[in-house]
Amino acid sequence: MPKITFVEPSGKQVEVDAPAGITLLQAAINNNIQGIVGECGGACQCATCHVYIEAPWTDTLPAVGDMEDAMLESTAADRLPTSRLGCEVEISSAMEGLVVHLPSKQF
Q1: What is the pLDDT of residue 107?
Q2: Model pLDDT for residues 47-78, shown as the tens digit of each residue
Q3: Which residues contact 72 (CB under 8 A, 6 or more apart)?
Q4: Which string of b and e fits 60-69 if b means at least 16 CB within 10 Å?
Q5: Burial, 77: exposed, middle or buried (Cβ in 10 Å; 0-12, 13-18, 19+)?
Q6: Does the model's pTM come out above 0.90?
Q7: Cis peptide before 56 (omega within 30 of 0)
Q8: Among 33, 39, 41, 100, which one is most buried in terms of CB atoms within 10 A?
Q9: CA pair distance 98, 100, nearest whole angstrom
Q10: E strands, the chain, in order
Q11: Quick one: which of 16, 10, 19 has its CA closest to 99?
């Protein structure tokens, strides 16, 4: 089970064990991470699970799909080159040590 670190806007870091096969959104909700909402329940329809993936992970994750790309255009916080939707990033065992920053606002 890979360890994922979520970094809240305040700088507080929360390390969680996240089983492979769930999404970053699910891992955050399961571990009561503050700052990630997922209003649509992970259906890629609301952009309230917007996160920033820390380098070098941005280059190792699967590419952003068309639907995710469209939703990233409507995030409350600025879209950056490292932006992803937590509902669209499935955790794999290869993601040990992944660091995910949460934006200052989701809606």
Answers
A1: 74
A2: 999 999 999 998 899 999 999 999 999 999 99
A3: 47, 50, 64, 79, 83, 84, 85
A4: ebeebeeebe
A5: middle
A6: yes
A7: yes
A8: 100
A9: 7
A10: 3-7, 13-17, 50-53, 83-85, 99-101
A11: 16
* Residue appearing with tokens 């955050």: 28
Q: Which two tokens stand for residue 12?
A: 């507080």
At 72, list the tokens: 């990233």
Closest CA to 47 of 93, 87, 98: 87
Overall size of the chain counted in residues: 107
User: Cα separations (Å) of 40 from 7, 24, 95?
Assistant: 22, 14, 25
